[in-house]
Structure formats: structure tokens, C-alpha cells
Design brief:
Layout: H1 3-21, H2 29-32, H3 51-75
Length: 95
């Protein structure tokens, strides 16, 4: 596998992981009894958003997922033939 392909695939895993871990640990003002500004502030907006922590978590999750992906790529545990659900099975006609 090319190193540029590895970077691109890791970046895809990172973005996907960032969206997965984004809501983890967030609290709304209703949950922490915080003050909400009457105009211009959504009641569902988080009060403790920490983007650096989200980036660190996404990096760890993406590294694990990419490691599993690369191990599968190197060892061929699951191949395209294993997940081909649309090809009709071959029937044994007994000739």
C-alpha cells in the first residue's frame, strides 16, 4: 500500500472518529443548571465543549481503526469475495 493511500485512509478514519466522539462528555445548560443567555444562545448548545480533547480521542480511535484496517489489508482476513452478497450461489447439479 502506498504511503499516500495510508495517509488518506487514516484521514478518513480520523474524520469519521471525530464525528463519533464529538458528543461524548458534552453537557447542556439544563444538565448542569447553567445560565442561558435569552437571545442568541440555543438551549441545546454545550457548555463544556473541548475541541482539543475531541481531537485527541479521535486520534486514538482512528489509530485503532486504521490498525485493524491495515492488519486486514496485510493478512487478507476479509476479502471482497467474502462480502459478495449479490452473486448467485453455484448449484451442484450432480453430473
Amino acid at each position: 500500500m502506498n504511503w499516500t493511500s495510508m495517509i488518506a485512509i487514516y484521514a478518513l478514519f480520523w474524520v469519521m472518529s471525530a464525528f463519533i466522539v464529538l458528543p461524548v462528555g458534552l453537557r447542556t445548560p439544563d444538565q448542569v443548571e447553567g445560565h442561558v443567555v435569552p437571545k442568541g444562545h440555543a438551549t441545546s448548545a454545550p457548555v463544556n465543549f473541548r475541541p482539543v480533547l475531541v481531537a485527541k480521542r479521535a486520534t486514538v480511535v482512528a489509530a485503532i481503526l486504521f490498525g485493524l484496517y491495515y492488519a486486514n489489508y496485510a493478512n487478507q482476513w476479509i476479502t471482497v469475495e467474502d462480502i459478495n452478497f449479490f452473486e448467485a450461489p453455484v448449484k451442484d447439479l450432480g453430473y
